[in-house]
Design a protein that fits this description.
heterodimer; A: 777 residues; alpha+beta; Aldehyde Oxidoreductase, domain 3; Aldehyde Oxidoreductase, domain 4; five-stranded mixed beta sheet; 20 helices; 28% helix; 23% strand; B: 160 residues; Ubiquitin-like (UB roll); DNA polymerase, domain 1; 2 domains; 32% helix; globular
């Protein structure tokens, strides 16, 4: 296998192309005769639409057409997907508001689309959009999560009579209170898990073309098959094979690029309507109010402990702000998307869990890196820190007493998940040693001499990965002996071009440089392609390739036997060579022969081209886990936090390429630190997004972060043949808890035990001033 | 009213007629079809559009095409040698995993070259602060910082 096999830190194949400006992103695509689309977006958070006057826009220079939601509805276009159903304990269904591709008589968030203007140039389309006169009758708005759930808030959907979509509970609370009552110590935490704007660096974009009764649309997606099916069925009323979605290079996904957004529907419908290609490119200010947001929860939780610091019961109440509509996965995230891992790495037998997804006048929320799991792990880690305070045990000791031990695995959680493997104590030991936890007090004292407050924090996490339970991968061996992978997965930064080639070299002995990847085109990708999200590709794509490769070898064996005039049972395969006794043929020779009928045994079809449709138990996941430790210094006069050191110990199972997995960890950590330190999404009471650009919204920059030392505590997964676990979302799960723990450790002299994220200088400084004032009083 | 502009892009003399409001990045991408330079925001924050104007890193979304008339422009497409040999900064990005999705990459590389020019043997903190105007969402900046520190040392040592 040498330097390109599984486990090697192979440099990426895709890099030279991307480093020399030869990437192919959606905005690089243009067609002759295309028109540009600009959307008229609501400046109101909540209002009735009394009228829409498009006459001035239609008369403007270069404007080709102006359409509203009514025009689409008249053509039979349906509503967007909410792919979620939950019931309360009494069996009552969740409320499911319908969302039109462009709203017709009511706007429910700032940025919601009201009309589209098509013009010869982008500037003309934007100028035309300014001329569409919408008469709004403003209504009271709900901008905050807490207010949305309050009894006195305006109701956004009158037909439901409440902003709460469903009150979901895992069981009656009284059952768990019975156990809680026996606790010696009860700790309570109230925390806000702040809303974040995912912001992949490529703004959303789409180019649609209607040609020969078929739709082709270029857009940044995380796979495209589901978007193809949605467009075909809901918008175009066509069979799916008449819709082609192409996503070549995609500038970041993070969960939110996998959705059927309304803009995709509008440009698809419009290109057929006017018979010209239609292009839309979102400005960043536009994607801030139209890309789905992430997180946004309020959690209240109570933990009961016995005299030994062992947890006897846990109760959690979660309110999640889903925005104006339930997006594809909105209410799923805190419930069975990621939230159901809530007891986390801890062995907790008695667990009550209540979730209220609420509607508000904000952008809908959906999957964002971790999708419920960062929220769940953050909550558990804040509870553990609070438990440490209440019991007087050290922060690591309270965790050690409660983590699931290896001898308890496979471990069935209260929410029914089966954790197959993980070394949670080992993670803590490794991380604390690497961080020199034992020597911390000396460093704290040194910082104090300089007037700085030093703190150290740790966070454990576990996060079910795998996403949807099916995937299809195909390997074609060409007559030249090269391999082409047709992937159902989709790489948008994860380096699949490299890793899939490593796997093919390992499984089939085809040289790394002779493997190419085809992905992101619904016309040629495997029929059952699902895509890349939920840290699923190493498992679903990797094992899919492994099984496809096995089929290549099985078929190749028959052909090789024929070529060598040997019994198929006597033929063995190793490193690209079929052997029987003293004879041998290479896979390349077999591939060439496979395309000539005379070489084929009876019943064997020509070609060497195999795919595998991988299906797993939908309730089966893998469980990446780890411990992250961070050290910070706080300037008490400014409230400014400096990140000094970060140790990430991750169990991602078998590591296929440590170079790439490290990259996933660094990126996840940066998004976690961003949420914890800089990223604040602010809606005012009128529902206006105050932080609507990179000027206002705190994207983490290079100077906010320190180097991250990423270590592996590799425990192979037992439920898949490659032993892999996910990697993409681990950092976002580990970082927030460790960060807040470290800052609160630094501020413990003030008695500050929690500050809600993001821990901006303003919030930290204010907390310090309040603590000082309280002490003085 | 259209205005004539003339400039050199990647060593080639080019000219065109633009509106007064046409941005340099629009001239590069739409008129010259050099799509390696990207647009990631509308407030001069992200740096995806960074190019060199007379040897200095400039955000091409914040300069008019007419302002660039008569100047020498270098974009990501012009950085590697004609035989395909990567610039030391490009090579360092590859070696240190300085890119994932690749969208911020052209801007990062162009600003990285400028940092190396101004700071031979740049240290980590210098590079982190110099990257204030460039945003990456994928890498946590780790590989980017390592790459620029490494390239800066190599270029200062004459290894480039």
């Amino acid at each position: 296998m040498g330097q390109y096999g599984i486990g090697q830190p192979v440099r990426r194949k895709e890099d030279v192309r991307l480093l020399t400006g030869k990437g192919s992103y959606t905005d690089d695509v243009n067609f002759d005769g295309q028109v540009w689309a600009a959307f008229v977006r609501s400046p109101q958070a909540h209002a009735k639409i009394l009228s829409i006057d498009t006459s001035a826009a239609k008369a403007a220079p270069g404007v080709v057409a102006v359409f509203t939601g009514s025009d689409m509805k008249a053509d039979g276009v349906g509503t967007l997907i909410t792919d979620v159903e939950f019931k309360d304990l009494a069996g009552k269904d969740m409320f499911r508001p319908k969302r039109d591709f462009m709203t017709i008589d009511r706007v429910r968030f700032v940025g919601e689309m009201v009309a589209v203007v098509l013009a010869e140039t982008q500037a003309q389309a934007k100028a035309g959009a300014e001329l569409v006169m919408v008469d709004y009758d403003a209504l009271p708005a709900v901008g905050s999560t807490a207010f949305a759930a309050a009894s006195n808030s305006p109701v956004i959907w009158e037909e439901h009579g409440s902003n709460v979509g469903v009150h979901w509970e895992n069981r009656p609370e009284a059952e768990i209170e019975a156990h809680m009552a026996k606790a010696k110590t009860r700790v309570v935490v109230d925390i806000v898990n702040n809303r974040v704007v995912p912001n992949p660096m490529e703004p959303r974009c789409a180019v649609a073309k209607w040609d020969n009764d078929e739709l082709t649309i270029y857009a940044p997606t995380q796979g495209g098959r589901r978007i193809q099916q949605g467009l075909a069925k809901i918008v175009m009323n066509l069979p799916a094979d008449k819709v082609r979605v192409i996503s070549a290079d995609v500038g970041g996904g993070f969960g939110i690029r996998g959705k059927l957004y309304p803009e995709l529907g509008v440009v698809s419908w419009a290109t057929r309507k006017i018979g010209r290609p239609v292009k839309w490119r979102g400005d960043r200010s536009e994607t801030f109010v139209s890309d789905y947001h992430g997180r946004d929860q309020i959690n209240h939780a109570e933990l009961g402990l016995d005299a030994n610091g062992r947890v006897v019961a846990l109760k959690v109440w979660t309110i999640v702000n889903c925005g104006a509509y339930f997006a594809e996965n909105g209410p799923r995230l805190p419930i069975n998307g990621g939230g159901r891992i809530i007891p986390g790495v801890y062995d907790i037998e008695n667990f009550y869990f209540s979730v209220k997804p609420v509607l508000s006048n904000t952008v809908p929320t959906d999957t964002y890196r971790g999708a419920g799991r960062p929220e769940a792990n953050f909550l558990m880690e804040r509870l553990m820190d609070a438990a440490a305070d209440a019991t007087g045990l050290a922060r690591d000791e309270i965790r050690r007493r409660n983590v699931i031990r290896q001898d308890q695995m496979p471990y069935r959680t209260q929410m029914g998940m089966l954790i197959d493997s993980g070394d949670f104590i080992g993670n803590m030991d490794m991380a604390m040693k690497a961080a020199d936890w034992a020597g911390f007090e000396a460093r704290r004292a040194e910082s104090a001499k300089r007037g700085k407050l030093r703190g150290i924090g740790l966070s454990n996490f576990v996060e079910p990965s795998g996403g949807r339970p099916t995937e299809e991968m195909r390997i074609q061996v060409t007559p030249e002996g090269k391999a082409v992978v047709y992937a159902g997965t989709h790489s948008h930064g994860q380096g699949h071009e490299t890793v899939w080639a490593q796997l093919i070299q390992t499984f089939l002995g085809i040289p790394f440089e002779n493997v190419s990847l085809i992905q992101g085109d619904t016309k040629i990708m495997p029929k059952e392609a699902a895509g890349t999200f939920g840290s699923r590709s190493s498992w679903m794509g990797g094992v899919g390739l492994q099984r496809s490769a096995k089929r290549i070898v099985e078929k190749g064996t028959k052909i090789a036997a024929n070529l060598m005039q040997a019994e198929p049972e006597k033929v063995s395969f190793d490193a690209g060579v079929f052997s029987a006794g003293t004879s041998s043929v290479t896979l390349a020779e077999v591939a060439k022969a496979s395309y000539e009928l005379k070489n084929l045994p009876d019943g064997v079809e020509p070609g060497l081209d195999e795919s595998y449709f991988l299906k797993r138990d939908p309730e089966e996941f893998n469980y990446p886990n780890g411990t992250h430790v961070i050290e910070v210094e706080v300037d008490p006069d400014l409230g400014k936090i400096e990140m000094l050191n970060y140790i990430a110990v991750d169990d991602c199972g078998k590591v296929l390429n440590p170079f790439i997995v490290h990259g996933q960890v660094y990126g996840g950590v940066a998004q976690g630190i961003g949420q914890a330190m800089t990223e604040m999404t602010v809606y005012d009471d009128e529902g206006q997004l105050v932080t609507g650009s990179f000027m206002d919204y705190g994207m983490p920059r290079a100077h906010h972060l320190s180097m991250i030392d990423a270590l592996f505590n590799e425990v192979p997964c037992k439920t898949n043949d490659l032993g892999v676990k996910g990697a993409g979302e681990a950092g976002a799960c580990g970082a927030p808890g460790a960060f807040v723990s470290a800052v609160c450790d630094a501020l413990k002299g003030f008695g500050i035990r929690h500050i809600d994220m993001p821990l901006t200088p303003d919030r930290v400084w204010t907390a310090i001033q309040k603590a000082k004032a309280a002490k003085a009083a | 009213m259209l205005i004539n502009v003339n400039m050199t892009i990647n060593g080639k003399a080019v000219s065109g007629q633009v509106e007064a409001r046409t941005l340099l990045v629009e001239f590069i991408r739409d008129h010259q079809k050099l799509t390696g330079t990207h647009v990631g925001c509308d407030t001069t924050q992200c740096g995806c559009c960074t190019v060199h104007v007379d040897g200095k890193a400039v955000k091409s979304c914040t300069m008019l095409a007419v302002q660039a008339s008569g100047k020498e422009i270098l974009t990501i497409e012009g950085l590697a040698k004609a035989d395909g040999t990567l610039h030391p900064v490009q090579e360092a990005f590859r070696e240190h995993h300085g890119l994932q999705c690749g969208f911020c990459t052209p801007g990062m590389v162009m600003v990285g070259v400028d940092i190396c020019r101004r700071h031979p043997n740049a240290d980590e903190q210098t590079v982190r602060h110099e990257l204030e105007g460039n945003i990456c969402r994928c890498t946590g900046y780790q590989g980017i910082v390592e790459a620029i520190v490494d390239a800066s040392a190599k270029m200062a040592g004459g290894q480039a």
